[in-house]
Amino acid sequence: MQSYERLRFFLDGMLYMMALFSLLSYFQQRKAIYWQYAVYIVCITLTFYLDDADTSSEYIPGTNYWITSLESLAFVMYISFAVQLIRIQENDPLSYRILRVMTLLLAGETIFEGLLFLFGTNDEIKSLSYAVFRFSVAGAALVVVPRIMRLRQPVVSYFITGSLLFVAGCLVALVVNYFPSVFNRNPDNPFTFSVTFMQLGVVGEVLCFTLGMSLRNRQNELEKIRVQEQLIAQLRENDLKNQKLLRIRDDIARDLHDELGADLASISMVSHATAHQMTTDPAQALQSLKQIGETARKVIQVMREIVWSLHSAHDSAQQFTDRLRETGLSLYEHHPAKLHFEFNTDGQPVPSHMRRDLYLVYKELVHNALRHSGANNVYVQFQFSNATVFLCVKDDGKGFDPALPHTGNGLINLKKRAESLNGQLCIGKNGNTGTSTTLTCQLQAYS
């Protein structure tokens, strides 16, 4: 076997192995880029065979219909490969539209030159048609290539390098035709054949394109990993939200049972008793009706508080502090003690899942100061900034020692509310007299 044949056999083997690898990759991954890449390699290799078989010294480009058809098909596959490898449709829609026009030009050229071949048109017209279409495609490529290079993607460098190697091989092969005395197709010297340089350029191109596809696959894998991490994070966030919802449901159930259950049961029992008292003791029946009315109003008030604490429209800090002020003033409306407010928020919303516990702690503290302190002044300080919640209620009354035994569930409920907020509740003296109670909690700790 002569040197030229051995080199061609080696280079052809490399190209066909890459085509086979691409086909197997397609059957494994079902991505169109692989079979299109294989068709491109086969078309280019067959074109080399046809070029090599044409030994005419007066060869005119574009007169061999089979060569031009294979070239056009190869270019179409090349364009489709580039679109998918670089994701041109997403990254540069204008270039994508130009490439579609180039594909239509190549398809139109194949059809038109097929008609010229069928009608036996002379070689000059065939060559002219070939030149017009090829120069049109080349002009469009000159617009697209700089735009692709501006994308600055790592995979673009492989694509451009491979394309330049192929173009360089074609240019060398073109120059070879003008030096027949040197490049005289000597079988013992493979570099006297113009096809050798074109094939070397394609081999370099194929290697670069393969590296580019490997890089693209790696990027796709990393993107899948990022998407999976985002999904996992979203699932965790959803799980936390579900836990919050379950906690809210449990809180509502507890509030309905503890605060409304007994009152509603009382209304039911008193109403039955009232029915008998209407005939036996009308005066007592009237008192029972008043008791029913007071209990019903209490139930309505508790229901309003529950609905308010859950309504998303009340998330703003301003609405929350307005609610604190309204509740405090309502409690102290007929009491000589004065209520003083100091609110400091940064506009950050108060989450609904902690709003009710905060509100109930506040209500219990101002209610205790009203009932037990005998104070002339009660001071309320509420701060909500930098994800830190600070609530302080202090008075100038007779004081309170939390270390002493106390009856009632007020202090127990306060501690439970503080624990549910993951906060710290401190009860101490306000100077020489009075009581100071503070609640501090972190928003992140609670969430």
UniProtKB/TrEMBL annotation:
Residues 249-313 form the Signal transduction histidine kinase subgroup 3 dimerisation and phosphoacceptor domain. The chain crosses the membrane at residues 6-27, 34-50, 65-86, 98-119, 131-149, 156-179, 191-215. This is histidine kinase. Coiled coil: none annotated. One of its GO terms (cellular component) is membrane. GO terms for molecular function: ATP binding; phosphorelay sensor kinase activity; protein dimerization activity. Its EC number is 2.7.13.3. The keyword Glycoprotein does not apply. Residues 356-443 form the Histidine kinase/HSP90-like ATPase domain. It catalyses: ATP + protein L-histidine = ADP + protein N-phospho-L-histidine. It comes from Persicitalea jodogahamensis. Residues 8-214 form the 7TM-DISM receptor extracellular domain. It is an enzyme of class 2 (transferase).
